[in-house]
Amino acid sequence: MTASQQQERTRVAIVAGAGGDLGRATALRLADAGFTVVGVDRNQDELGKLAPGIRTEIGDVTDPAVARTVVDRIATEVGAPEVLVNTIGAFHLGDALATTPEDLRLMLDVNLGTALWLTQAVVPYMSERGSGAIVHVAARPGLEPLAGMAAYGLSKAGLVHLVRLLDLELRPLGIRVNAVAPQQLATSKTRLFLTPEQLEHAVPPEPVADLIVYLAGDAAEPVSGAIVPTYGA
């Protein structure tokens, strides 16, 4: 095997939140695209649903120390990550005047903090090789204010701003940072509370995963700092 073939076989992609529907679909698509995929989630049972051949790591990467430990372990045991996909997120309904400190803290910790801690953990490896791709999952309420989603919308707006800041800081290092922004995903969880009309317009995880894989791949090399709407029909 030549050196170039070996490098191709060891293109490592980390998918955080791989136990969820979108994370699972993205991990499968990345594996099909030739990446060595490591799925990360705090839920061992959900990680067990990943396709054979996808390595798993259990950890709550909303904790910055855990995020760094997990990424370092993957880099040591599997290889330096070339791609990070972060699908971790939490949702909370509530208007601005009813938002509690706990509500806001949870949304910021999960939806914004996790993205920052994972990015900090992978950047040393990507900058060393002079290339890398990071894709986070934002949301339409982070781009357009929507009544009744105050804490959630604020956290996703923060994530949108973070992606644009990271683009400015990391693009000179050869690292691209982008995000997809769904309005509503049709997942096993959302099907429990969405109305039939809402489900009719919800987007399945698979086409969003396809877009994430495109943004992570070589064909999207000119694209960085983009927040790509995936609102559906």
Percent helix, as a range, is: 40-55%
> What is the CATH domain class?
Alpha Beta
What general outline do the C-alpha atoms trace?
globular
Q: Give average pLDDT, whole number.
A: 92
- Sketch the topology as an H/E string, one letter per element: HEHEHEHEHEHEHHE
Under CATH, the topology can be stated as Rossmann fold
Overall structural domain count: 1
* Proportion of strand residues: 15-25%
Unreliable residue runs: 1-8
Give the termini separation.
47 Å
The largest beta-sheet arranges its strands as 3-2-1-4-5-6-7
**How many beta strands in the DSSP annotation?**
7
The radius of gyration over CA amounts to 17 Å
CATH architecture: 3-Layer(aba) Sandwich
| Count of helical regions | 8
Structural class: alpha/beta
Major sheet attributes:
7 strands, parallel
Q: CATH homologous superfamily - what is it?
A: NAD(P)-binding Rossmann-like Domain
Please explain how this structure is put together.
With 233 residues, the protein is α/β, with parallel strands linked by helices. Mean pLDDT is 92; it is low at 1-8. Helix 2 packs across helix 8, helix 4 (64-77) runs parallel beside helix 5 (101-129) and helix 5 runs parallel beside helix 6 (150-170). The chain is built from eight helices and seven strands. The chain has one domain: NAD(P)-binding Rossmann-like Domain (Rossmann fold, 3-Layer(aba) Sandwich), CATH 3.40.50.720. The chain has a seven-stranded parallel sheet with strand order 3-2-1-4-5-6-7, with helices on both faces. 45% of the residues lie in helices and 17% in strands. It has helices at residues 3-9, 21-32, 44-47, 64-77, 101-129, 150-170, 196-201, 205-216; strands at residues 12-16, 36-41, 55-58, 81-86, 132-137, 175-182, 227-230.
